[in-house]
Amino acid sequence: MLKQIRGLHHVTSMAASASGNNAFFTKTLGLRRVKKTVNFDEPSVYHLYYGDEVGTPGTVMTYFPFPHIAPGRPGTGEVGETEFSVPRDSLGYWQQRLTDSGAAGLARDEAFGARRLRFLGPDDDAFALVETDGDARAPWTGGEVPEDTAIRGFHGARLRLRNAGATAELLRYMGYEQVDARGNLTRFAIPGGNGADRIDLEELPSASSAHLGAGSVHHIAFAVENRAAQAEVRKALLDTGYQVTPVIDRDYFWAIYFRTPGGVLFEVATNEPGFDRDEDTAHLGEALKLPVRYEQLRGQIEAHLSPLED
């Protein structure tokens, strides 16, 4: 069993509108845009990162906004819902705020003893705010959301699967422990993790497969401290029979990817070097940052990308 993984690093999804996506996460949800760069494989579109003040692993939601992309189709084989941690007794504030912003799909429920507020993002992305006791992570306070109600980071994520058995075994191998099971939901958690350390498996044997598009999660990333730990995880996964990519430099972390038995794309990302490697903390997410190989195309890229409100 692996011991290097500490919880989530980031979750990356697809969007149709860069400006609408940016406004929703920075204004409505009150997160900080910590990096404005481009999709390293398709530099004609942004890659936008939102999180706490410095983009701490376990707080960062990221997006590829592809103009004119078709909507995704929810189903199995995907991350069906991304959960954010908020303080106890803050759901009333959030329900009013999201109602005032025009967010759709608002509904209260409870999962594993915690109260939740479900809602949809601009592309019908599925989210939930979860009231969490004792989350000591500091929120970003430079936005419009008060500190006593602000998002602390991820709580976890819910994977929709036709059959959860093989993915459950994978999570156990990755260091997660089963901590509860209710109906068709099974919860796994990393003991002493980074706060973003819960994964729920929702088994839906008769549901159709998901289709990737706007509002879909592209991949979910798990955090390891450094490249040495990542190398250990990669070797262990290869030895177990998973097809794992070589290590890829994403400028702000190093990444490896592999497809799970249930069809979800997993990434293992390093906490190093972080989002302040090319911007000081006071100005994170302000300038367009490009990988070195695209700097010669900066003028062309900037002319193509739509402006974002700061």
UniProtKB/TrEMBL annotation:
CDD domains reported for this sequence: PcpA_C_like
InterPro entries according to UniProt: Extradiol_RC_dioxygenase, Glyas_Bleomycin-R_OHBP_Dase, Glyas_Fos-R_dOase_dom, VOC_core
Domain of life: Bacteria
Entry-linked Gene3D superfamilies: 2,3-Dihydroxybiphenyl 1,2-Dioxygenase, domain 1
Domain VOC span(s) in chain numbering: 7-132, 153-271
Name used for this protein in its record: Glyoxalase family protein
Organism: Pseudochelatococcus lubricantis
